[in-house]
Amino acid sequence: MQTCIHPFFGGSLPASPHTGLRPGYLASCSVFDLYRQAMASVVIALLVLTCSVGFSQGRLQFGFYDKTCPQAESIVGSVVREAALSNSNVPAVLLRLHFHDCFVEVNQIFSFSFFRSYNGPNSERHAFGHQGVGGFDVVEKAKAQLEAVCPGVVSCADIVALAARDAVALANGPEYQVPTGRRDGRISDVSLAKDMPDVGDSIQLLKNKFLQKGLSEKDLVVLSAAHTIGTTACFFMTKRLYNFFPSGGTDPGINPSLLPQLQATCPQNGDVNVRVPIDIGSEREFDSHILQNIRNGFAVLESDARLNDDEATRSVIDSYFGLLSPLFGPSFEADFVASMLKMGQIGVQGEIRRSCLAFN
Ligand code: HEM
């Protein structure tokens, strides 16, 4: 059955110039679905209003490029759509890139620094925590087109933030506005990646790393749910499947009915580059299914599984699945947007790169 898509989330409206094409379909929506999605729309609209006040007090603003480069968002959108047509995992890759771009340095606001990473073997991109991060070609392509029409205006960090927003929409997730005006970092050092959350971190460490960035336990849960789309390499599964700390063997948190499947796909001493969907059963659709999987012991990534072990993070997950949650509970989509906007404020002061591949 097709999914119920509310107009606010792009389902039946003509494609937004910056969020991509999505099929309109309302016929299979129940009254509850429509009610919930209408509530989520209201929450997101209020959020955008509130945030526009908050963000314009800082450096980020909605429509920052309206006068200086009005085509900025549509150019990013068309490059992302085109890339996603030739590789369906592009939305997931771009969403992950935004997370890594945001998390590279603490306490310095309004400019992202991941693009520092192109400079040499000790550059940030080579840190363990950034293994497998991609999407640079898509960002650089958008940048080249933007430089042709508005040279020196649009930062690479903003392109990444806009591309992540478009990626979410392409995966049938919520549509939202992104405040822009970020600048690109000027230094790159592999040691700066130490604050990057690691898949094997304890729940306490994950919470601390998010807190260091001004992100709450709720943000940790909701943003981890970005794993609703995309895949992981077996590389990140090996420890969990065969050498789990402290006693070796398998992570007891893995549901026994999932374990054989994971071990068959990622055999011990097998090819660590083989990829596994992270949200088993719904890896292409942006939805709260990943949280249901985590609750049921079907988390693929260890860091996701830990969210269900801790009382505080578990209660955030549970809040989306209570008896009355469909009617009166929080909206996962609205919460995700709120956390993305919060995460999108982390960064450093810097410059507007001419190319995303090098400092000016
Ligand atoms: C709690 C901290 C997190 C940890 C430890 C973590 C770890 C990982 C790992 C190990 C992978 C697999 C990478 C690969 O094999 O290529 C992955 C994939 C992914 N992550 Fe996270 N992640 C975290 C939070 C986030 C956040 C906050 C977002 C975005 C808001 C995000 C978005 C994604 C996406 C979309 C993928 C799939 C990428 C693909 O298909 O290529 N992650 N993550």
Automatic annotation (TrEMBL):
Catalytic activity: 2 a phenolic donor + H2O2 = 2 a phenolic radical donor + 2 H2O
Entry keywords, A to Z: Calcium, Disulfide bond, Heme, Hydrogen peroxide, Iron, Metal-binding, Oxidoreductase, Peroxidase, Secreted, Signal
Molecular function terms, GO-annotated: heme binding; lactoperoxidase activity; metal ion binding
Site residues, Transition state stabilizer: 96
Gene3D superfamilies: 1.10.520.10, Peroxidase, domain 2
Statement: the UniProt record of this protein carries the keyword ATP-binding: no
Residues that, per the record, bind heme b: 227
Binding sites annotated in the UniProt record for Ca(2+) 2: 228, 279, 287
Residues the entry annotates as binding Ca(2+) 1: 101, 104, 111, 124
Cofactor, free-text remark: Binds 1 heme b (iron(II)-protoporphyrin IX) group per subunit. Binds 2 calcium ions per subunit.
Domain Plant heme peroxidase family profile span(s) in chain numbering: 59-360
Binding site for substrate: 197
InterPro entries the UniProt entry points to: Haem_peroxidase (IPR002016), Haem_peroxidase_sf (IPR010255), Peroxidase_pln (IPR000823), Peroxidases_heam-ligand_BS (IPR019793), Secretory_peroxidase (IPR033905)
Disulfide bonds: 69-150, 156-356, 234-266
GO annotation, cellular component aspect: extracellular region
EC nos: 1.11.1.7
Principal subcellular localization: secreted
Active site per database record: 100 (proton acceptor)
Protein role: Removal of H(2)O(2), oxidation of toxic reductants, biosynthesis and degradation of lignin, suberization, auxin catabolism, response to environmental stresses such as wounding, pathogen attack and oxidative stress.
UniProt similarity note: Belongs to the peroxidase family. Classical plant (class III) peroxidase subfamily.
Protein name according to UniProt: Peroxidase
Species the sequence originates in: Turnera subulata
